[in-house]
Amino acid sequence: MGHDGPVSTHSTTTASDLAAALRVPPGPVDLTAWPTDTTPGFDGDKAEGKRLLGELGDPLGDLQERLFAEGVSGAGERSVLLVLQGMDTSGKGGVVRNTVGLVDPQGVRITSFKAPTPEELEQDFLWRIRKGVPEPGKIGVFDRSHYEDVLIGRVRALVDQEELERRYDAINDFEQELVASGVHVLKVMLHVSRATQRERLLARLDDPTKHWKFAPGDIDDRGLWDDYQRAYEIALERTSTELAPWHVVPADRKWFRNLAVGRLLLGELERMAPQWPSADFDVEEQRGRLQSEPA
Amino acid sequence: MGHDGPVSTHSTTTASDLAAALRVPPGPVDLTAWPTDTTPGFDGDKAEGKRLLGELGDPLGDLQERLFAEGVSGAGERSVLLVLQGMDTSGKGGVVRNTVGLVDPQGVRITSFKAPTPEELEQDFLWRIRKGVPEPGKIGVFDRSHYEDVLIGRVRALVDQEELERRYDAINDFEQELVASGVHVLKVMLHVSRATQRERLLARLDDPTKHWKFAPGDIDDRGLWDDYQRAYEIALERTSTELAPWHVVPADRKWFRNLAVGRLLLGELERMAPQWPSADFDVEEQRGRLQSEPA
């Protein structure tokens, strides 16, 4: 069964409604049934979307700081791991800059996964991933992730079928382990259309300050577009679990993509409801010590 | 010879003038001659200072992205390392949030150094520091640093005099090595008065959402204020070198502290003048590939 996309269009959708609308339910996944150009939960325009994103700064910053305080004080062992996946130009970097950039960088740990090094290739595919798991109190962000190992790994047949099958299970085991240890896993696929990717690649070619973001291999990968979409579908089907579900965010509009991930992150932090740690010292006693100092 | 502090008060001081005014010159250092409550180079008020800080966002972000592009493309091996030191409440965290937070978090690597772990204590004091050195293209930030090992190390006599002496030299060697490998080292002491620290500690006690930032040991350290100031003076004298000079930023006013570090960082990036990497592919050819795709 496919999914015909979220239906709500009014702008008062709550973060948890949005998460429910974008969550990938159990069962086979047909990405063509997930729109790339809609703005579920919002009927405003780009300017309104940008304004709403800016308004997320205060509540996101407040909850992030509470979570950080929990971690520093030892009052909590919880963290958040935001996993960002998507085709080239889908905007993983834009989400980090515009959405994750809203909160105190001290509380954030970003890991960008490139092609594995020879050293990394000698280890299990999760070896380098484990090193990026956020410490208690932190918001970790994966810009690409262990999912590359079942995406490009499948499309380019970098490993055999048996290893590929093993990896889906290993990913689920790994993520269950994370959840059990207090890591709240928020998985987001930024879903762009092939036509939008073409526009964005052409725009990169038109702008010399963007040439560094372009590689001819990006166009080679477009030749495998359908294979990648199929690999995403299989990955989503196999790994969208109750404790670590996937969300598909329509990403043809940058402003909506940034706003939607911001609201998903806010929703996750609201559910965690981190609290300011209480003092483990006598506040009055300490105040007295300071006040009794010679002027 | 002491230093009677910067004299310029007009607000058109350039970043390099500011760096020169705040730089610790060779020779003995007397921190009592460095003001904590002035705003060198600026005669505006807090509102104006906050506005000016906001205006740094675009040029800082632009230069940071160019540096990042250099690193990603392999066109450059350069990075920046901002070392933040200062007494408790001097605002290291505030600088990270308000100033470093102006740029894309993907291009930033923040390392906060706490008391060393047993594993770290088994190694040379620079062992854990080396792991935080930013990769090419990044802006690294040290919230506390290897200088703790000659500050608290001296004040609390954690090591003997001989080891302490060895460390100043080891630090200079290490930093020269960094500079030679392309790391631009920007060292900043956030200089607060003892009275300001008292106000800020009292404010933390007054606000339950700030209790997690307070520890009774902070007041114990105040009892050693003069010893710490002396340890800073010696560290600055021994390690303010031509290639890795120290800067003393008056930090009694948060807005000026944030702005001054922002301008120092901007000045460093302007001197580096990172350039957009040129394409290592034929732009027209790649455009042709995209345009010739079936619609």
UniProtKB/TrEMBL annotation, chains A, B:
Recorded GO MF terms: transferase activity
Cross-referenced Pfam families: PPK2
Keywords annotated in UniProt: Transferase
Entry annotated with the keyword Transferase: yes
Enzyme Commission number, as recorded: 2.7.4.-
Domain Polyphosphate kinase-2-related intervals: 59-274
Top class in the EC scheme: transferase
Highest rank taxon of the organism: Bacteria
Key word Transferase present: yes
PANTHER family the record matches: POLYPHOSPHATE:AMP PHOSPHOTRANSFERASE, POLYPHOSPHATE:AMP PHOSPHOTRANSFERASE-RELATED
Protein name per UniProt: Polyphosphate:AMP/ADP phosphotransferase
Species assigned in the record: Nocardioides aquaticus
